[in-house]
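Example 9 (inverse folding). The structure is encoded as follows.
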Protein backbone atom coordinates (compact mmCIF):
# COMPACT_ATOMS: atom_id res chain seq x y z
CA UNK A 1 0.00 0.00 0.00
CA UNK A 2 1.14 3.54 -0.62
CA UNK A 3 -0.10 7.10 -0.90
CA UNK A 4 -1.54 8.37 -4.17
CA UNK A 5 1.16 8.87 -6.76
CA UNK A 6 1.06 11.09 -9.81
CA UNK A 7 1.06 9.22 -13.12
CA UNK A 8 3.75 9.33 -15.76
CA UNK A 9 3.13 10.05 -19.43
CA UNK A 10 6.42 8.53 -20.55
CA UNK A 11 5.27 5.68 -22.79
CA UNK A 12 7.20 3.04 -24.68
CA UNK A 13 4.92 0.70 -26.62
CA UNK A 14 5.70 -2.18 -28.93
CA UNK A 15 3.34 -4.89 -30.15
CA UNK A 16 0.43 -3.41 -28.22
CA UNK A 17 -3.16 -3.61 -29.49
CA UNK A 18 -3.96 -0.70 -31.79
CA UNK A 19 -6.70 0.65 -29.57
CA UNK A 20 -4.58 0.68 -26.43
CA UNK A 21 -1.74 2.93 -25.34
CA UNK A 22 -0.51 2.01 -21.85
CA UNK A 23 0.24 4.87 -19.48
CA UNK A 24 1.64 3.07 -16.45
CA UNK A 25 3.73 0.24 -17.86
CA UNK A 26 6.37 -0.19 -20.52
CA UNK A 27 5.41 -3.12 -22.71
CA UNK A 28 7.58 -4.72 -25.38
CA UNK A 29 7.97 -8.01 -27.23
CA UNK A 30 11.27 -8.88 -28.88
CA UNK A 31 12.98 -12.16 -29.80
CA UNK A 32 10.32 -14.22 -28.07
CA UNK A 33 10.58 -12.33 -24.76
CA UNK A 34 7.72 -10.12 -23.56
CA UNK A 35 8.64 -7.50 -20.96
CA UNK A 36 6.16 -5.69 -18.74
CA UNK A 37 7.83 -2.97 -16.67
CA UNK A 38 5.72 -1.20 -14.05
CA UNK A 39 6.26 2.51 -14.64
CA UNK A 40 4.32 4.67 -12.20
CA UNK A 41 6.96 6.68 -10.30
CA UNK A 42 8.09 6.91 -7.66
CA UNK A 43 6.83 3.63 -6.16
CA UNK A 44 4.91 1.86 -8.96
CA UNK A 45 1.69 1.93 -6.96
CA UNK A 46 -0.96 -0.24 -8.60
CA UNK A 47 -3.93 2.01 -9.28
CA UNK A 48 -6.96 0.64 -11.12
CA UNK A 49 -5.63 2.20 -14.31
CA UNK A 50 -2.14 0.72 -13.82
CA UNK A 51 -3.61 -2.72 -13.15
CA UNK A 52 -5.78 -2.40 -16.26
CA UNK A 53 -2.62 -1.72 -18.29
CA UNK A 54 -1.07 -4.84 -16.79
CA UNK A 55 -4.14 -6.93 -17.59
CA UNK A 56 -4.32 -5.65 -21.15
CA UNK A 57 -0.67 -6.55 -21.69
CA UNK A 58 -1.12 -10.08 -20.34
CA UNK A 59 -4.32 -10.63 -22.31
CA UNK A 60 -2.75 -9.36 -25.54
CA UNK A 61 -0.16 -12.15 -25.36
CA UNK A 62 -2.72 -14.96 -25.51
CA UNK A 63 -2.42 -15.51 -29.26
CA UNK A 64 1.23 -14.56 -29.68
CA UNK A 65 2.55 -18.06 -30.24
CA UNK A 66 6.20 -17.05 -30.51
CA UNK A 67 6.42 -15.70 -26.93
CA UNK A 68 8.64 -17.91 -24.77
CA UNK A 69 8.74 -15.91 -21.53
CA UNK A 70 6.96 -12.96 -19.91
CA UNK A 71 9.21 -10.82 -17.71
CA UNK A 72 7.61 -8.59 -15.05
CA UNK A 73 9.75 -5.94 -13.36
CA UNK A 74 9.52 -2.51 -11.80
CA UNK A 75 11.27 0.61 -13.02
CA UNK A 76 13.01 2.76 -10.44
CA UNK A 77 13.71 1.94 -6.79
CA UNK A 78 10.51 -0.05 -6.17
CA UNK A 79 9.09 -3.19 -7.71
CA UNK A 80 5.70 -2.03 -6.42
CA UNK A 81 4.52 -0.52 -3.15
CA UNK A 82 1.08 -2.07 -3.52
CA UNK A 83 -2.44 -0.88 -4.23
CA UNK A 84 -3.56 2.75 -4.54
CA UNK A 85 -5.10 3.83 -1.23
CA UNK A 86 -7.87 5.94 -2.74
CA UNK A 87 -9.04 3.00 -4.83
CA UNK A 88 -10.23 1.22 -1.69
CA UNK A 89 -12.92 3.83 -1.09
CA UNK A 90 -16.49 4.09 -2.38
CA UNK A 91 -17.51 2.60 -5.71
CA UNK A 92 -13.89 2.28 -6.82
CA UNK A 93 -13.37 -0.44 -4.20
CA UNK A 94 -15.33 -3.02 -6.18
CA UNK A 95 -13.64 -2.09 -9.45
CA UNK A 96 -10.25 -2.23 -7.75
CA UNK A 97 -10.81 -5.74 -6.40
CA UNK A 98 -12.10 -7.05 -9.73
CA UNK A 99 -9.16 -5.55 -11.63
CA UNK A 100 -6.72 -6.86 -9.03
CA UNK A 101 -8.23 -10.36 -9.22
CA UNK A 102 -7.97 -10.42 -13.01
CA UNK A 103 -4.19 -10.02 -12.86
CA UNK A 104 -3.83 -13.30 -11.03
CA UNK A 105 -6.38 -15.07 -13.18
CA UNK A 106 -4.41 -13.95 -16.23
CA UNK A 107 -1.13 -15.12 -14.70
CA UNK A 108 -2.66 -18.47 -13.76
CA UNK A 109 -4.21 -19.22 -17.14
CA UNK A 110 -1.43 -18.03 -19.43
CA UNK A 111 0.54 -20.71 -21.24
CA UNK A 112 3.64 -18.52 -21.23
CA UNK A 113 6.16 -18.98 -18.39
CA UNK A 114 6.55 -15.85 -16.25
CA UNK A 115 9.59 -14.36 -14.53
CA UNK A 116 9.52 -11.58 -11.93
CA UNK A 117 12.70 -9.56 -11.40
CA UNK A 118 12.51 -7.70 -8.08
CA UNK A 119 15.11 -5.00 -7.54
CA UNK A 120 13.37 -3.09 -4.75
CA UNK A 121 10.54 -3.28 -2.21
CA UNK A 122 7.57 -5.44 -3.20
CA UNK A 123 4.77 -4.74 -0.76
CA UNK A 124 1.15 -5.83 -0.53
CA UNK A 125 -0.18 -6.36 -4.04
CA UNK A 126 3.37 -5.87 -5.32
CA UNK A 127 4.58 -8.78 -3.22
CA UNK A 128 1.80 -10.99 -4.57
CA UNK A 129 2.47 -9.95 -8.17
CA UNK A 130 6.11 -10.96 -7.81
CA UNK A 131 5.35 -14.20 -5.96
CA UNK A 132 2.63 -15.28 -8.40
CA UNK A 133 5.08 -15.45 -11.30
CA UNK A 134 6.51 -18.90 -12.09
CA UNK A 135 10.08 -17.83 -11.33
CA UNK A 136 10.92 -14.94 -9.00
CA UNK A 137 14.41 -13.50 -8.67
CA UNK A 138 15.11 -10.78 -6.11
CA UNK A 139 18.06 -8.65 -5.14
CA UNK A 140 19.33 -9.20 -1.62
CA UNK A 141 18.11 -5.77 -0.47
CA UNK A 142 14.55 -6.33 -1.71
CA UNK A 143 11.79 -6.51 0.89
CA UNK A 144 8.49 -8.39 0.79
CA UNK A 145 5.56 -7.81 3.09
CA UNK A 146 1.91 -7.08 3.75
CA UNK A 147 1.41 -3.85 5.69
CA UNK A 148 -2.30 -3.66 4.81
CA UNK A 149 -3.47 -4.73 8.29
CA UNK A 150 -1.98 -1.51 9.70
CA UNK A 151 -4.39 0.45 7.52
CA UNK A 152 -7.44 -1.55 8.55
CA UNK A 153 -7.68 -3.72 5.44
CA UNK A 154 -6.19 -6.94 4.05
CA UNK A 155 -5.08 -8.17 0.63
CA UNK A 156 -7.78 -10.38 -0.89
CA UNK A 157 -5.36 -12.17 -3.21
CA UNK A 158 -2.82 -12.68 -0.42
CA UNK A 159 -5.47 -14.20 1.84
CA UNK A 160 -6.20 -16.81 -0.85
CA UNK A 161 -2.76 -17.29 -2.45
CA UNK A 162 -0.23 -16.79 0.34
CA UNK A 163 -1.18 -19.96 2.31
CA UNK A 164 -0.69 -21.96 -0.91
CA UNK A 165 2.77 -20.52 -1.37
CA UNK A 166 4.24 -20.46 2.14
CA UNK A 167 1.85 -22.57 4.22
CA UNK A 168 -0.93 -21.68 6.63
CA UNK A 169 1.14 -20.78 9.68
CA UNK A 170 3.54 -18.43 7.90
CA UNK A 171 0.71 -16.84 5.93
CA UNK A 172 -1.17 -15.99 9.13
CA UNK A 173 1.98 -14.50 10.61
CA UNK A 174 2.71 -12.37 7.56
CA UNK A 175 -0.84 -11.09 7.06
CA UNK A 176 -1.51 -10.32 10.72
CA UNK A 177 1.99 -9.13 11.57
CA UNK A 178 2.30 -6.50 8.87
CA UNK A 179 6.08 -6.71 8.91
CA UNK A 180 8.40 -7.05 5.92
CA UNK A 181 10.83 -9.90 5.35
CA UNK A 182 14.15 -9.96 3.53
CA UNK A 183 14.73 -11.54 0.14
CA UNK A 184 16.76 -14.28 1.83
CA UNK A 185 13.86 -15.11 4.14
CA UNK A 186 11.43 -14.97 1.21
CA UNK A 187 13.57 -17.57 -0.55
CA UNK A 188 13.75 -19.74 2.57
CA UNK A 189 9.97 -19.93 2.96
CA UNK A 190 9.29 -20.45 -0.74
CA UNK A 191 7.80 -17.05 -1.54
CA UNK A 192 10.43 -16.44 -4.23
CA UNK A 193 12.73 -18.67 -6.26
CA UNK A 194 16.09 -17.15 -5.44
CA UNK A 195 17.71 -14.16 -3.74
CA UNK A 196 20.97 -12.94 -5.29
CA UNK A 197 23.39 -10.11 -4.51
CA UNK A 198 22.04 -6.79 -5.77
CA UNK A 199 24.92 -6.32 -8.18
CA UNK A 200 24.33 -9.79 -9.67
CA UNK A 201 20.55 -9.54 -10.13
CA UNK A 202 20.55 -8.25 -13.70
CA UNK A 203 23.16 -10.79 -14.80
CA UNK A 204 21.16 -13.60 -13.19
CA UNK A 205 17.96 -12.38 -14.84
CA UNK A 206 19.67 -12.14 -18.22
CA UNK A 207 20.95 -15.71 -17.85
CA UNK A 208 17.44 -17.01 -17.14
CA UNK A 209 15.99 -14.97 -20.02
CA UNK A 210 18.68 -16.27 -22.37
CA UNK A 211 17.85 -19.87 -21.49
CA UNK A 212 14.24 -19.24 -22.45
CA UNK A 213 15.25 -17.35 -25.60
CA UNK A 214 17.07 -20.48 -26.76
CA UNK A 215 14.01 -22.70 -26.18
CA UNK A 216 11.17 -23.55 -28.51
CA UNK A 217 8.19 -21.32 -27.77
CA UNK A 218 5.84 -24.26 -28.31
CA UNK A 219 7.73 -26.54 -25.93
CA UNK A 220 7.94 -23.80 -23.28
CA UNK A 221 4.20 -23.18 -23.53
CA UNK A 222 3.21 -26.86 -23.39
CA UNK A 223 5.50 -27.44 -20.41
CA UNK A 224 4.03 -24.47 -18.57
CA UNK A 225 0.49 -25.65 -19.33
CA UNK A 226 1.31 -29.13 -18.02
CA UNK A 227 2.79 -27.88 -14.74
CA UNK A 228 0.21 -25.16 -14.06
CA UNK A 229 -2.76 -27.32 -14.95
CA UNK A 230 -1.69 -30.08 -12.56
CA UNK A 231 -0.89 -27.90 -9.54
CA UNK A 232 -4.20 -28.13 -7.67
CA UNK A 233 -5.29 -31.59 -8.86
CA UNK A 234 -5.11 -34.85 -6.91
CA UNK A 235 -2.02 -36.79 -7.98
CA UNK A 236 -3.81 -39.31 -10.22
CA UNK A 237 -5.68 -36.54 -12.04
CA UNK A 238 -2.50 -34.47 -12.28
CA UNK A 239 -0.67 -37.32 -13.98
CA UNK A 240 -3.53 -37.77 -16.47
CA UNK A 241 -3.53 -34.06 -17.23
CA UNK A 242 0.24 -33.98 -17.81
CA UNK A 243 0.08 -37.08 -20.02
CA UNK A 244 -2.70 -35.51 -22.05
CA UNK A 245 -0.64 -32.38 -22.69
CA UNK A 246 2.40 -34.51 -23.52
CA UNK A 247 0.71 -36.93 -25.93
CA UNK A 248 -1.92 -34.74 -27.55
CA UNK A 249 -0.21 -31.36 -27.66
CA UNK A 250 3.56 -31.57 -27.20
CA UNK A 251 4.08 -34.68 -29.36
CA UNK A 252 1.91 -33.19 -32.10
CA UNK A 253 4.27 -30.22 -32.39
CA UNK A 254 7.02 -29.92 -34.98
CA UNK A 255 9.52 -28.80 -32.36
CA UNK A 256 9.17 -31.91 -30.19
CA UNK A 257 10.11 -34.06 -33.18
CA UNK A 258 12.92 -31.69 -34.09
CA UNK A 259 14.32 -31.69 -30.56
CA UNK A 260 14.43 -35.48 -30.37
CA UNK A 261 16.02 -35.74 -33.81
CA UNK A 262 18.63 -33.15 -32.86
CA UNK A 263 19.64 -35.14 -29.78
CA UNK A 264 19.98 -38.36 -31.78
CA UNK A 265 21.93 -36.57 -34.51
CA UNK A 266 24.12 -34.76 -31.98
CA UNK A 267 23.34 -31.28 -33.31
CA UNK A 268 21.68 -28.10 -32.16
CA UNK A 269 17.91 -28.06 -32.80
CA UNK A 270 16.41 -25.57 -35.24
CA UNK A 271 13.16 -24.48 -33.68
CA UNK A 272 10.10 -23.38 -35.64
CA UNK A 273 8.18 -22.40 -32.49
CA UNK A 274 5.28 -24.64 -33.48
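The amino acid assigned to each position is listed next.
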Amino acid sequence: MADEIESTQDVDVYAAPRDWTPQFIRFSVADGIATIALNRPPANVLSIEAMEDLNRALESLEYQRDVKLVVVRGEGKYFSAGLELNDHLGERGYIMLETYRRIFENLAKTDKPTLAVVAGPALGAGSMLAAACDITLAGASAKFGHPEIKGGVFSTVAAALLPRLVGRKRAFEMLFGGASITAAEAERIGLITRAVPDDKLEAEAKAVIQRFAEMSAAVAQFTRAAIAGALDLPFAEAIRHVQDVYLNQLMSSEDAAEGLRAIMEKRKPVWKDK
